[in-house]
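Expect chain and fold; thus:
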Amino acid sequence: MAHSTTHHHESNTKRIWFVFALLSFVTIVEVFLGIIKPEFLVDTHFLAMRLLNWIFIILTIYKAYYIAWAFMHLEGESKGLRRAVVWSAIFLISYLMFILLTEGDYIFDVFKNGQVAWDF
């Protein structure tokens, strides 16, 4: 008896359109908030940064995670691999944000308060 070599092909068209719609919606929200800049979000500070910036960071991290989940097929991987990828990325992004915000705040203070002279 010959074995059947035909494979069942599953169409992912519906899933692709769902991912496209979800990522487009999040991007549209980001662009809309960037254009409108609601006063409440611009004037409110949380952990030394505007609330609007936090929303942008959270939405961008969400998009990056979902892109990895959908297009890098993390949903079908083992729990250990998913955790290793996601936790590493979260740690590195958090560390980068800390460095950028700390150094950016220092540079802002230098420009705001005048030039700093170093006497050696």
